[in-house]
Write a structure and sequence with these properties.
The protein is globular, with a radius of gyration of 18 Å. The protein has 2 domains: 206 residues, 3-Layer(aba) Sandwich (Rossmann fold), CATH 3.40.50; 37 residues, no CATH class. It is built from 8 helices and 7 strands; from the N terminus they run βαβαβαβαβαβαααβ. The chain starts with 7 loop residues before the first strand and ends in a 7-residue tail after the last strand. The structure holds nicotinamide-adenine-dinucleotide. The site of nicotinamide-adenine-dinucleotide has 28 residues, from α1 and α6.
Length: 261
Amino acid sequence: MARLDGKVALITGAASGIGKAIAELYAREGAAVAIADINQQAAAAAAAAIEAASGRAIGVAMDVTDEQAVDAGTDAVVRAFGHLDVLISNAGVQIVNPIESFPLADWKKMLAIHLDGAFLTTRAALRHMYKGDRGGTVIYMGSAHSHEASVLKAPYVTAKHGLLGLARTLAKEGAPHNVRSHVICPGFVRTPLVEKQIPEQARELGISEEEVIRNVMLKHTVDGVFTTLDDVAQVALFLAAFPSAALTGQSLLVSHGWHMQ
Ligand code: NAD
């Protein structure tokens, strides 16, 4: 039997990168998946690809910073699939700049996508998960930057640390309703989000792109190796399939040893 048979998962930012890899693995493991993304076309294409491989998926147009869009999109998923068991709050972007010249508008945009988005999708999901104390699992896509800082990434590091607080609060509030929460904290994974940063950081730091990879991104790993999409997706599968609340309120680093807790 597949490990997520009968489960319904809503995954934000699932039209690309990590979210997409989780959606594909979840679908292979029997879950019906909602690919929620601000990029409506890419979400529809990702859902169609899963359906073509005999999975169950729908694309949902959702800007996670838009309260109405989040509520309506989440309700639409429950209408389509009957209930909601797993929320992966994953949508994210990166903007790099030193603090002294960080535009306030970019700071606010980062906190809105990463923190308002996590809050709004959680609130919308709980309205369904709390019904009859059916319960569920909420997984936030944190980062090694939920535990470590790097130069040029003030709002990203701030927001990713903030997700630990939300997940821990939810672990306590959700327990009586059978809701568990976790933060997955990947090291660097070569997605579009990271590919964009390599030349940006090289420019800001005045070093080559190879040096950004070797001396910035992978410097603190134990083996100088990138984390893969499948590494992160397998951890998301393990957490969603875990049978009890023995595991809740935790953050798991998937980072080749970058930051050991
Ligand atoms: P990605 O750029 O490949 O995918 C991000 C997705 O989020 C895109 O499809 C984009 O359209 C969507 N998105 C952006 N803003 C949105 C919004 N307002 N509403 C809905 N969707 C929106 O990036 P990724 O690397 O797969 O990142 C996914 C998550 O993983 C992010 O939260 C990121 O911070 C986190 N993360 C990534 C890495 C890495 O190395 N790639 C490491 C640690 C954590």
